[in-house]
Specification:
Residues 88-277 form the ABC transmembrane type-1 domain. Belongs to the binding-protein-dependent transport system permease family. The chain crosses the membrane at residues 27-49, 90-116, 123-147, 196-218, 225-244, 256-277. This is ABC transporter permease. This protein is mostly helical. It has a single domain (3-52, 72-290), classed as MetI-like (MetI-like fold), CATH 1.10.3720. Helices cover 76% and strands 0% of the residues. The protein has helices at 3-24, 26-43, 45-48, 80-116, 118-132, 136-147, 151-177, 181-188, 193-229, 241-248, 257-284, 286-290. Helix 4 (80-116) runs parallel beside helix 7 (151-177) and helix 4 (80-116) packs antiparallel against helix 9. It is elongated.
Amino acid sequence: MTDATFSLTTAERQANPILMALRRNRFSWIGIGLLALILLAALLAPAIAPDDPLKQNILHRLSPPSAEFWLGTDSYGRDVLSRLLHGARISLSVGFLSVLIAMVVGSALGIVAGYIGGVFDQLVMGLVDVMLSFPTLLLGLMVAAMLGASFENLVIAIAITETAPFVRVARAPTIAVKRREFIEAGKSMGFSPLRIMGVHILPNILSDIVVVASLWMASAIRTEASLAFVGLGVPPPAATWGGMIREGFDNILSAWWLVVFPSLAILLTVLALNILGDALRDAIDPKTRSGR
């Protein structure tokens, strides 16, 4: 059996039960639909936003929600709905890119550590234990404060905080998979360790990694909002959900919409990602699938 055939067969075995389980779990489609709407709104923000998110109009400063301004305006007279839609692009981009980097780096380290074992495995897991001893937000604050406030530094800071969980998730199944017969057969045929890890081990643990990625993307969006709230996010006047909450906090008693609507956007996005992540986790769990 060729590597391509093996990988395709493995992917098919994993994908079909997952798709069937998702179809049976109607609650998962709520998360999928809600997330699709949020992504669509972010992608179409330049076309559907009623105004320029950076345009200031002091005459309409702190206007409440109305027919002219559906979600009101902020202290600079900027349309909140327009900033909310454009802010989704930045907040989701930060969440996606940071999780993507953490997933690639963490999964690679976890697979290599689990496959090689020995001193390298102990060193990697010792570093992971140190990173996990810090709360995610505290670690993100330290890294972001050292790097400075910018889009790129924010992505790097959040990626660093989320690398350790991917190392753990990738390492444990790698240790189990490397003892299976087809791995021993690959070694006897002279396959290199890189080929075994990338072609034979990775497809067998990929579903676990994807589930963790969906759950930690929700955490990344929360972290981005928290860092933006303390002034370590994307610098203004760029619109981000966390930045909008920070800017509206001073007027929270007189202009509630400045905080409520960005908070609802974060809540709905995190809720959709958590629903999707839980559904994927249940779908790949053999005990859950067999019990349905």
